[in-house]
Amino acid sequence: MTRFFDDIAPVTFDPSADALAFRHYNADEMLGGKSMRDHLRFAVCYWHNFVWEGNDPFGGQTFQRPWFPADTMDQAKAKADVAFEMFRLLDVPFWCFHDHDIRPEGDSLAESHKRLNEMADYAMAKMQDGGPKLLWGTANMFSNRRYMSGASTNPDPDVFAYCASTVKACLDVTHRLGGENYVLWGGREGYETLLNTDLDRELHQMGRFLQMVVEYKHKIGFKGAILIEPKPQEPTKHQYDFDVATVYGFLKRFGLENEVKVNVEQGHAILAGHSFEHELAMARTLGIFGSIDMNRNDYQSGWDTDQFPNNVPEVALAYYEVLKAGGFTTGGTNFDAKLRRQSLDPMDLIAAHVGAMDVCARGLKAAHAMLEDDALEGPRRARYASWEKAGHLHPGKTLEDVAAYAEAAALNPQPVSGRQEILENIVNRYV
Ligand code: XLS
Ligand code: NI
Ligand code: NI
Question: Which fold, 30-372?
């Protein structure tokens, strides 16, 4: 057993505690017939917590973890021991990983797969020994220099084939570990300059790749969801999976809109010039809502800063959309969030998650109460009530019919207040 978290006790729900405790996240508390645990379906990510060394564009490693550099299988196992120890302390129901997070890359593709499978077995034993379940697995096809010019969108077809082998291995492992989803975030699926890019060809490569992934998922009987994670840029100047609406158009084009859903990340929504709730509402409306990566960006920096969430009003509006979508099915709340590079201590890792889980719990409770009270839906229904009376979208009528109605009745519609401030006041009563 690891000594990394040495004197840190398992975190419990205790609103009166002086020490670190959950003050709002009470896993067994019921909200509308479902426990908070089942509503929120929290997951801890492997990469930011146990792989990232604290570097930024101007400086290198700040974290000195006993398992760094995890370039041997022994170190990878030491890292896994600490990761699962943290999952236990937080009592989270799920975790998430990239292949690259859990195993050091081998000298050959075959060796990399062998190591991945060995580490998956290592994780499986811990999962079966009271550990969390797997929310999703994914392949890192953006860090190594071979992906510099794209993964499935690379001008070199051998990179496409390398990616096919990588995703196949990673989907197999995700399936074997009982993963509830498989995520594709296309970090390098985009371009640096249109001057050297065949946009049409690259989009077809990406579409074909995704079709192959879906075909393979069905072949092996993977019941989980395939999720695309939209992001507009960073690391590429332009990423093809720009936002939820763009992804939907892409899925439609390749006949995949009923096969693939989205994993929506708060920070990516901000980078795309949207709010988190906009992206979630769009996913719900288009029928492709899957899961969320919960974090927040620094609004001044314009980067994907992946901070832990701490803004209850924002989080409440996000969960409002999740609840309106019917809640999570295979998805959950993955903290794709990292410490600031000065937060060196093991305790910082725990405190970050405890705070984030409490923020989410407060947001969820507020969202649930707003729905129970019909606080926003009532006024929204009232706003569209005349459409209900008029009948939906004039079925069977032509443009001429509707024009004739307007002219015969000499219509002169009068605007009514949108009541935005009143609605904002209502939200503020809940958060
Ligand atoms: C990066 C993405 C990444 C995905 C998984 O910005 O958020 O972490 O969630 O590849
Ligand atoms: Ni993410
Ligand atoms: Ni991100």
Answer: TIM Barrel (3.20.20)
